[in-house]
Amino acid sequence: MAGLFGDYYVTPTAGACARAWSLCKGSVRDYQKIRAHALKLAFWPNGADLDWCWIKSLEAKRVGELRIDEIIAQQNNLRVIFFKANKVLPSDPLPRIWTLTVFQKKRQDFSGKEIAAFRVMRDVVVSRRYAGIPGA
Asked: How many domains does the chain fold into?
């Protein structure tokens, strides 16, 4: 299934959807722009025009950030935080990349509270979706 549809399913968490909607202040057009950028993760790591990196303190947990350089909803420097699962869910033909949140990054590094929040978001996905699947 690689190629036209990419190598991953990209699945937003409810929190990521709510946060994107809030950033867009109800603009469906802006929301869809953020969504389109996040869906490029289906071709991760080398496909599409992705500007991304692992979050250093969460690299072992496979949590990264996708940088969006387009101004959307009058906001620049948007980041999509994502988690790349290692295991494939039993009903899926492809592994998943989960979008955990999206926000406007205002400083170079992440604060300790942001890192802790990203870790918890990732752990919630693992406990809800990958419980009983070793190595998720």
From this structure: 1
